Structures are given as structure tokens and as C-alpha cells.
Amino acid sequence: MIPETLDHPVCLASQSSARERAWGLLAQLRPLRAEVDAGGQELLANWESRILRPGFRERALNLAHYIILRRVDLRPLQDELMLLGLSSLGRLEGRVMANIDAVIAALAAIGGEPDEALFPEAETMLHGRAMTHANADRALGPCTGLRSVRLMVTLPAEAASEADLALSVIENGADLVRINCAHDGPDEWRAMIANVRSAADLMQRPVRVLMDLGGPKCRTGEVEVSKGHKRLFRDGEFLLVRDEFQPLDAWPVQVRCTLPSVFASLRAGAPVWIDEGRLGGVVRSVQAEGAVVHVQTAPPRGLKLKPDKGLNFPDTDLGVGPLTGKDLADLDFVAHEADLVGYSFVQGAEDIALLQRELISRVGEKRGTAIGIVAKIETPRAVRNLPEIIVQAAGRQPFAIMIARGDLGVEIGFARLAEIQEEILWLCEAAHVPVIWATGVLNGLIKEGQPNRGEMTDAAMSARAECVMLNKGPHIVEALQCLDDLFVRMSEHQRKKSPRLRALKSW
Fold first, then answer.
1. Hey, what CATH class is 134-216+321-497 in?
2. Model pTM?
3. For residue 225, how many other CB atoms are within 10 A of its CB?
4. What is the pLDDT of residue 414?
5. Across residues 63-82, what is the average pLDDT?
6. Which option is the CATH number for 220-312: 1.20.1600.10, 2.40.33.10, 3.40.190.10, 2.40.160.40?
7. Closest CA relative to residue 490, chosen from 478, 477, 480, 500
8. Distances from the Cα of 55 to the Cαs of 28, 201, 292, 398, 432, in angstroms?
9. What angle in degrees, to the nearest 10, is found between the helix axes of 56-69 and 122-140?
10. Strand 253-257 relative to strand 237-241, pairing
11. Whether the predicted pLDDT of 364 surpasses 60
């Protein structure tokens, strides 16, 4: 068994030679390598039945090796390696065993064991990067110009009737477009796709179409309030209505829940969030009329409840499957027309298997396994099950992960969002699966024509993903131009986690 922590403390005052330090590190790394190899093979064996694409087995093994390795606290080992100029374990996601072997070979050379200093071939060390690029192209299509990050734009309803809108976004760098199936219908979607295909032909470059299934999204329905209760403040209360509205003198603020099945699992103490976390509270009690929610978090000036705002219950089972009746009806169109299908609120491998069966039942095995799947990671359960989700999907067809930061931030808590999105990026790199960085990118620029400092920093961080999604808005062209310029410049400095060390010209 691998110990949870490799306890080899750094001693800056030590007079031990570099050779002795290398011997000590080799004594730790060699058994660690053996354990990672054996554990990875065992994990891969559990996944074998899900892997139907021959090329994915190698990627799955690297993912398995990464999972086993990252169960160990490598910080003490990293500190020791740094003293010898060997700290590359922190960038091994795409090439786990090759990177460990390279470090072992370097330590053997330092320790005076030339027979053991067998470095991996350059092709082996670079193979993971090449596979990530190839899989991103396969799932998402190629990048435009000098960028290494694709740009995706969510189309508004007007894109069905205004052909110039699709041409404008593609002309300014959009590599993919997204159609939200929660809005409009087949006639509008068909017109949007026709306009996109026509614009792509005119620009003489491929543009993929992602159709995003609505999924079991829980939202606020109708709202009823008595006079003087327009806004909710901290320590206020409202009734989340199960069926019928109640007299306003008993419950001055009432909002209908569009997903009644949630009440079967809702319990006192359960957290509730509205409008992507703008208002939060806990269930004080569950009654025949509905759930009484005590507000704990609200804007200083309060929040006016409105219909069609997101409702999140982080610790509660929504009581529905990942594909709603509407999703199944929409798939009749999507399976034939889309290049990629976006899958909302995926929780585990069984959800992916369900979508795969539904696609094949509509368009057959060949087309059903050629269409790409984009799994939207929005809940803690999806994060926990991410390895199995990846294996089930990428083991059969083109696949990408979308970090849906709006719902994910609410579900796991904003304090953990930055940490979790980093872990998702690392895990996907280990599986050579492309990542779409989504929700809120340059919203200020898109909506108001002016970004803020935090948005620009966030956009720069998104350059480590293979694709960035932009929402619709009046200034979408300016946002595309801004990101195109930013990503070209960032690619000179960073590739995933690896700094490229371009010459600095600021001093």
C-alpha cells in the first residue's frame, strides 16, 4: 500500500551530498512507481467493459495511473526534488509513468548509477500532449488562427432570422456555436444551423454546432407577494410552494418550484439557493403547502424574486433522471443535426450510458457513436464520479467536459469553485479529454461593453482549457476580438500547467 504521505522532511541545514539525497529519493520513487503501475492496471481492469474505442485504452491507463498517484501527498517529495532541480512531477498529468521514469533516470544519474539512467524517448514524453491536441480537434474541431484555445458562442433566438448575426460571430473567430434547447424549437434551431453552415462555408472553415439539452433544471415559477414585501432580505422567509398558492396574509412571499418531485426528498436544514447564489437560505420546515425557507444570504438591498431563476438544492436528490421528457423529444432533432450534444446535470457513468443508448436508438450505431458528447459538470456528485463519466463517454465516442461554473459554484460553494475547477482540468488532462471553460466569461464586456479587472484575469486563466464558452449579448463581437488577442499572447507564456518562459520585455 502507498502511504498517504511520503514523510521525507526537507532539511536545509543538511550537509548530505547530492548523491546521498538522490539515493534517498530513489528509495521512495521506485516503490512508488511500482505501486502506481500495479494500482493503475487494477483500476483499468475495472473499466475494460466500458472501453470500446481501441485508442482510448492507453488514455484510460494514464488516467488510472494519475488517480492512484494523486492519492499520495507528494509535497515533501516535491520539496526534496526541487533541491536537485527536479520538480517536474507537478506537471505530469498527460504522461504519468514517462515522467516518473524520467525523474528516476535523472536521480540515478545524479546518484552515480549510470546503468539505471534510462530516460524515456522524447516521443514518449510528448505523446500525451499530442493526444490531447488530437482529441480536442476530434471533439471540438480545429482552432482559428494562432490560438490554441477554441471560442464557443451561445446563439440568441435572433440567429434564426438574421443570417448576418451568425456570419458576424464566425467572421470574428467563433470556432463553435451553442444552441440552448431550453429555448425555441426545431424550426428555429433548423434555421440557426442553416445560417451557421452557410457562414462557415463562406469563411471556408469548419464550425461545430453544440446543441445543449435543457435537462432537469429546477427554476422558480410564478411569484406572489403581498404589498410591502417586494424584496427579500437576510432573516426573511418565503414559502416554496408545492402545488397551490396560499393566502398572502399567512405567507406574504411565495414562489412556485417548477420541479415538484424535489419535495419528496427535501428536509429541514437543507440549503436552498436562488438565481446562481444571489440569495441563499435553509429549509426551516416542510409542510403540506410547501417548504418554509429562512433567508441567510441576500444582497444588501435585498432581492426581488422573479420567475425562471435557477433553484439549487445542493444536498437534496431532485428525484428525476438526467433526461426529461422534453430532452427525449428534442433528441429526435439533435441526434440528426448536431455535431455535439450538451448533457446537463450528469451525475454518473450510468447517465452517460443512457444518452448513448438514446442516440443509437435514433440514428444507429455509426452516427450515434460519431456525435460528440459534452458532459456538463454541475454537482458534487458529478465531480466525485468524473473518472467513470470520462471512461464511459470517451471509451466510445468523441467527448469533452464542460465546467459549468454557474451551477457548480452554487452546488459546491463559491469558496471551493476555484479549487475544484483546477482539479477537473488536471484530471481531464490525464485522460487527454478536452475541457470547455463556461459561465460568466467576460460577461461585463458582453453585456455592458466594458470588462472589469477580475473578468480579464479569469479570461486569462481560462486559456488552460481547450475551449471557452461565451454567453450571448450585444457586445459579443468585441468579446471575441478581446479573447482572440488575449489567447494568442497567453499561449506564448503558458501551455496548460507548464510555463514556456518566453523572454520578458517589460523590464
1. alpha beta
2. 0.91
3. 18
4. 87
5. 94
6. 2.40.33.10
7. 500
8. 32, 31, 53, 11, 11
9. 110
10. parallel
11. yes
